[in-house]
Design goal:
Rossmann fold; five-stranded parallel sheet; 12 helices; 43% helix
Length: 294
């Protein structure tokens, strides 16, 4: 049976790093955020020259995505989401062969039940969860970089609605957003019946060989040390994190430690102890009591 790997979770939780690591296996091929192609508001299928693939070419020049995009564009938006994804899968296996395994890092929850409907494709999901302290700092920094953070920028962009958006950029709001959505994804994964494994971003960065061996066992593929090299050259990732094109961040598995010295997470960590308890259990479940107590 053909196979598919779907990475679930929140944006900025390390999915691009995990994708690069999985790409070190000869059968695993990253394809990026496939479901984003079907978002009519973003309309990527009709402007492929504006999207760069991890192979270094524009999407309309990539050996895989150029023909695939054309197939999808002719069917969009007439066909259902399920049919569009089937066209993508048929194009992928036709190009790379039935033994190849696509790694979709779309992360959104909505496709989980849809992926179960393909009888000839076994989908396995990896839920990636990042420490809420680290994640909230990363999200606030992302807003700062896009000039969508300071009160003056928000007032200029949103007018009288700036106050609501300002509250939405607070660490407390990010804590609750992280907690509610991760719990929802866990519930939807259970409801979908898809085989799944949960991994913490911190676990992946701090104990990469241990975690990648565990993931390899789950996916039923042989572990290879190349998974730690980040030298994947066979994937065709689109619409992923900017890390995929930043060579200095791909020299080794490195942990994003900004939250060590940015302390904006401290107040919500004190105010919401139940979120911190959930964080402690869910992010570190694979390494708890297994490393230092052995």
């Amino acid at each position: 049976m053909k196979q598919l790997v779907y990475i679930a979770g929140r944006g900025h939780s390390g999915s691009t790093l995990l994708d690069l690591m999985l790409g070190g296996h000869p059968r695993l091929i990253g394809v990026g955020e496939v479901f984003s192609l079907f978002d009519p508001a973003r309309n990527f299928l009709n402007r492929p020259a504006e999207v760069t693939c991890s192979c270094g070419k524009q999407m309309n020049e990539c050996e895989f995505w150029a023909p695939t995009t054309e197939i999808l564009r002719r069917a969009f938006p007439r066909e259902s989401l399920q049919q569009l994804y089937r066209l993508f899968l048929d194009s992928f296996y036709g190009h790379f062969g039935p033994a190849a395994i696509p790694v979709d890092i779309s992360k959104t929850d909505e496709p989980l039940s849809l992926l179960k409907s393909f009888d000839d494709v076994e989908t396995k999901a990896i839920l990636l969860i990042r420490d809420v302290r680290s994640w909230s700092v990363a999200m606030r920094d992302t807003a700062r970089r896009s000039r969508d953070f300071d009160a003056r920028d928000l007032a200029r962009k949103y007018g009288w609605k700036a106050g609501r958006h300002y509250i939405g950029r607070t660490s407390s709001k990010f804590f609750w957003h992280w907690y509610i959505l991760n719990r929802r994804t866990q519930h939807l994964l259970r409801e979908s019946g898809l085989p799944s494994v949960q991994v913490g971003y911190e676990e992946l960065c701090l104990y990469p060989d241990f975690i990648m061996k565990m993931i390899s066992d789950f996916l039923e593929v042989d572990y290879t040390p190349d998974m730690l090299a980040l030298t994947d050259i066979q994937s065709h990732v689109i619409l992923g994190n900017r890390m995929r094109s930043q060579q200095e961040k791909r020299r080794r598995v490195a942990y994003d430690d900004r939250w060590f010295y940015k302390l904006e997470w401290m107040l919500p960590a004190l105010v919401f102890p139940h979120i911190m308890r959930y964080n402690s259990v869910e992010v570190y479940r694979n390494i708890r009591d297994r490393i230092w107590n052995t």
